[in-house]
């Protein structure tokens, strides 16, 4: 089974010839991750979330309700000790997006020095999440291979 190129490709460009976001993340304090399926009633994560975590960035999640809870179920740590994450439980999409913006504004009110200090205190969480990405991406690769096998058997 080939590893997923979005998770496991080093260098500036992955196999799909898209820009590697890790370089961009080095210039930011945190990542505002906009998952594709924000309005669906179930949570999901994609390479967008995993790339941010792999790049040692705290995240604010623009996703379906329960996405942060889903990350926690997968063994990741989120950043509720540093900023409000109540938006994750809001079912109404427009209300959830307003709450996400409130969280971004909350973070934006810190000075650069305060953000640097905050980031240093997050390093154990960021390291944990980085290590967890390695395990989860292997799980997704294996899971996709099993789905492929089932599709072939069903044909």
In words, what does this structure look like?
It is a single chain. This protein has 155 residues and is mainly α. Helices cover 53% and strands 5% of the residues. The protein has helices at 5-8, 22-25, 47-54, 67-73, 93-108, 112-154, and strands at residues 31-34, 59-62. It has a two-stranded parallel sheet. Strand 1 (31-34), helix 3 and strand 2 (59-62) form a beta-alpha-beta unit. The chain is globular, with a radius of gyration of 17 Å. The mean pLDDT is 84.
Provide keyphrases for this structure.
155 residues; two-stranded parallel sheet; 5% strand
Radius of gyration from the CA trace? 17 Å
Q: Strand fraction band?
A: 5-15%
| Largest sheet report | 2 strands, parallel
What's the helix count? 6
Quick check: average pLDDT?
A: 84
Question: What portion of residues is helical?
Answer: 40-55%
Structural class: mainly alpha
List the helices and strands and how they pair.
Blueprint: H1 5-8, H2 22-25, E1 31-34, H3 47-54, E2 59-62, H4 67-73, H5 93-108, H6 112-154
Parallel strand pairs: 1-2
